[in-house]
Design goal:
2 copies of one chain form a homodimer.
Chain A (H helix, E strand, L loop, with lengths): L1 H8 L4 H11 L8 E2 L10 H18 L1 E3 L3 H10 L2 E3 L2 E3 L4 H5 L6 E4 L8 E4 L2 E4 L7 E4 L3 E4 L2 H13 L21 H12 L11 H15 L1 H6 L4 E6 L4 E2 L1 H12 L3 E9 L8 H22 L5 E4 L1 E5 L6 E2 L3 H16 L4 E2 L12 H16 L4 E2 L5 E2 L4 E3 H18 L6 H4 L1 H7 L9 H10 L11 H6 L5 H14 L8 H16 L7
Parallel strand pairs in A: 2-11, 7-17, 8-19, 10-12, 12-13, 12-14, 13-16
Antiparallel strand pairs in A: 1-7, 2-4, 3-4, 5-6, 8-9, 14-15, 18-19
Chain lengths: 514, 514
């Protein structure tokens, strides 16, 4: 505070002082998580085999629908499926055979090579919330999201140490025409951040635009030989693959770009009310979707996705952070690993309307299960509020701070000679204390995870500073980060080429708001 | 609301209506958790063996202090330890040999036999917060705790479905003299609840009073042959056993009553700054403490305790819900299981001053690790605030609600024919929905955990009802529960005998407030 007011009082040197302060803001990005702890496995071998057997039974006997997509039906027929109208019945074992070409892990390149991520294996890559039409902050309340909000979230994600990925539709910029939104969103990810990002899936033509913009950013040849986008293609559960999502998947797979093939399930509504039944359906759906991606292009990178919530049977509302959601997340992780596929699930899920205790309980439950279940790509890892209807600014930085806890947990426990600390125990002895001892001095800086949001001050200090709750602390953090944001550098020619592409595209069609 | 005002308007039948309403309040207590999920193990075999070897080295070469307790030193000498002043060095393997008589699990009896608990094995018993000198609620703010507050917490614990245990010093009743407090606290647990409880440890004479009051409640012979109290005897880490705690442990062990033998460690202050070093010290301390209990009475029931927090190296404040605290909790669980001892750790830990998002993140992290680490007895499982300085009324019911999530998680995943739900999947098929199907109707009531605090309503309904945050919802829940509390029945002669005992005791000594 004293420093700030000194700066405000000073004249002339203010600009330099502010620049110096900005330079001092850390924008480190942690490496994606490489787990050094076991996965938590809730299903035994017998349960896994039953679920796997039943999923094949569904594919064979019930089948899945590929809707409004005659080319897909033709491809399935050629691959050996039994196609009847839009219903595709897949003989036992065929899907499993087809997905063998899918890579068990892949690199998604960022324009800053230091921020490229490897998705799969023991890794976990964290990306922010996706899809909310509303935003909320303490000052402005709940309101429709705009492009200005979108840009702010991209900046916050860029500045978060624990986010490895810039995400996709961090909120819906409702002030931009629906048919042009994807261009501005991609431009924000490409220019305001240097982390990896997602492409558009709201229309196959927009997926194509996404690929073309990446060709400008990364070079055409690079894009054909490397994965530079990971995009979210949902399945309309139960067992329905629509032409928009599958059309987008076709574009991405053909261009060697990654897709998350992800059932979207509110348990009890889009899947059976039981955990085992839901897992069976999830597996059947993912097998069909990923098999289809490999028919399009064998070897195309894909992720086994599972977005599954429980439900409040009174209101029909999806519920989060519940035991049933955890069971499904753990179980789906086991199923994904048995298929040797990267796994996407979990996130900062909550049903609360405010970034309050309910939001935090539900979110912490969901984040913990995400880490423990072996998730490789965690979309929605921060900022999610109100069942995904709202992207909340305070919750974004609160959750992002908690992602540091996951990084620490994943490191596991060192037990080398320094970690054993026998010298310290001998030195201090019964009744002593460790604060001053040599081992503590040598290790304390790296010993403990540090928050950048939460309050650990003595009660009296906290009271003197205004008795702020977490949301107020987070508001201050949001303001601080946005005030100190610095845009990563970019070749001006690339930027101009992207701008020209977008201008052309926008001029080529009238605005559409549906 | 309509119903309530109808009752208020009605005359004559009001009393009966109110009684009927009270009777309708559920005061079910769930059975203690019997885990049907694996434990999470963070340490590998090599790390475990190193820690176990090093712990014996500490006991042999550094030793532990038994302070102001000549009889304990004599006992240790007779048991084969090397005693030098107050320092007790325990030859490698001796402590491990001595603890072999400690039971791997034991039953703690409640006066209502349906609420007796089995502590150990795959079970988890949940007890409320212990020890805070302050209480807080939304209306009254933060203030010194009184006996009235204490009684309210005992009532709330009695009415919580997910608490199996009434606990001990749920808050410090600072309006009662220190030397008489334990009598009123025990009386509250014995009469306002019928769940199992803890005895006093603040002086050996008070431990004796606790045993005598239990002899009145349960009968003298029953107490000698059965465990009716589980009490908390802390170790003053590093490696110091004081005469008050050990004196209390001596009373309890002699009378076959259970003690939690628990290091109290703020990592980096009372133990090395590293996880492996802290675990080594914890193991050495618990080995010494439990060995001592078995010298007092072979077969006395005991629990391997570990209260360990991380630390904010800037302020020295203990920190909660951190990765380091989780690593220690997981690791200590493994060490306890290898000794075949029940394990106590975790709780609703947080450093926050308010029951806000920080409190909930930290608490959820701590509760989850408690379940996954195999804890058998979880003290502090609800109501803990501000590093344990405050027992918070709203957080008590918020946390208690989350304990239901742990119950659900621990159940594991069913995969019988009903759970497989293949009939439902066939019936609904691609593009259908499950809400109306037979399987959903037959299973939905038991399918999902239900909150009694959190909000799942549509945004508009929530807004119309006042846009309440979690704390406000919890305030209403506290008020509702206390308004509907009904005291469990007790034999009047027993109650009179307890009252007479307390009156005699109180008359026998002047008040003391230190």
């Amino acid at each position: 505070m004293a420093e700030a007011s000194a700066r405000r009082r000073g004249r002339g040197g203010g600009g330099a002082a502010r620049r110096a302060e900005r330079t001092a803001v850390r924008i480190d990005t942690a490496k994606y998580i490489e787990r050094n702890i076991p996965n938590f496995e809730v299903l035994n071998e017998e349960a896994l085999e039953i679920i796997e057997y039943n999923a094949e039974t569904i594919l064979e006997e019930v089948g899945v629908n590929f809707v409004d997509n005659p080319a897909a039906l033709e491809r399935w027929r050629n691959a050996g499926a039994d196609v009847d109208g839009e219903r595709v019945r897949i003989p036992r074992g065929l899907a499993r055979q087809l997905i063998k070409t899918a890579p068990s892990q892949f690199t998604q390149h960022a324009r800053n090579p230091e921020k490229s991520v490897v998705i799969g294996g023991r890794n976990m890559v964290l990306a922010p919330v996706y899809g909310p039409p509303f935003v909320r902050d303490a000052q402005g309340g709940r309101r429709y999201a705009t492009m200005d909000d979108f840009n702010k979230f991209v900046k916050l994600a860029y500045m978060s140490k624990w986010l490895h990925h810039s995400g996709g539709t961090v909120c819906e910029p409702t002030d931009i025409p629906v048919n042009k939104r994807h261009l501005d969103m991609l431009m924000a990810h490409m220019t305001l951040s240097d982390k990896p990002f997602m492409g558009s899936v709201t229309d196959p033509s927009r997926a194509k635009d996404s690929v073309e913009m990446c060709e400008i950013l990364f070079g055409k040849e690079f894009v054909q030989n490397n994965t530079v986008m990971t995009s979210l293609t949902n399945i309309n559960s139960p067992m329905t693959f629509d032409d928009v999502m599958m059309g987008s998947l076709e574009v991405y797979a053909k261009n060697n770009q990654a897709c998350i093939v992800s059932p979207f399930i509110v348990g009890g509504a889009m899947a059976p009310v039981s955990v085992a039944g839901t897992l069976t359906q999830v597996l059947a759906e993912v097998l069909a979707g990923i098999a289809y991606s490999q028919i399009i292009r064998p070897g195309a990178p894909v992720i086994f996705g599972a977005f599954v919530t429980s439900i409040d049977m009174n209101s029909g509302a999806p519920t989060f952070g519940t035991p049933e959601a955890a069971h499904i997340t753990y179980g789906a992780g086991q199923l994904a690993r048995r298929l040797n596929l990267p796994y996407r699930s979990a996130g900062s899920f909550c049903g609360s309307k405010l970034p309050d205790a309910q939001a935090a309980y539900e979110t912490a439950n969901s984040l913990n299960m995400g880490l423990m279940s072996g998730v490789n790509f965690m979309l929605h890892s921060c900022g999610w509020l109100e069942g995904g209807l709202v992207a909340d600014f305070e919750k974004f930085v609160m959750d992002a701070d908690q992602l540091g806890v996951l990084h620490g947990l994943a490191k596991g426990v060192a037990y080398d000679e320094n970690a054993q600390a026998m010298g310290a125990i001998r030195e201090v002895g019964p009744g002593g204390h460790y604060l001053g001892c040599e081992h503590t001095q040598a290790n304390f800086k790296e010993a403990f995870w540090k928050t950048e949001v939460l309050d650990y001050k003595p009660f009296e200090t906290w009271q003197d500073e205004g008795s702020r709750d977490t949301r107020q602390l987070a508001s201050a953090r949001v303001e601080y980060l946005l005030a100190n944001y610095q845009q990563p550098q970019m070749d001006p020619a690339t930027k101009e080429a992207l701008e020209a592409y977008i201008a052309d595209k926008k001029a080529s069609m009238p605005d559409a708001f549906t």
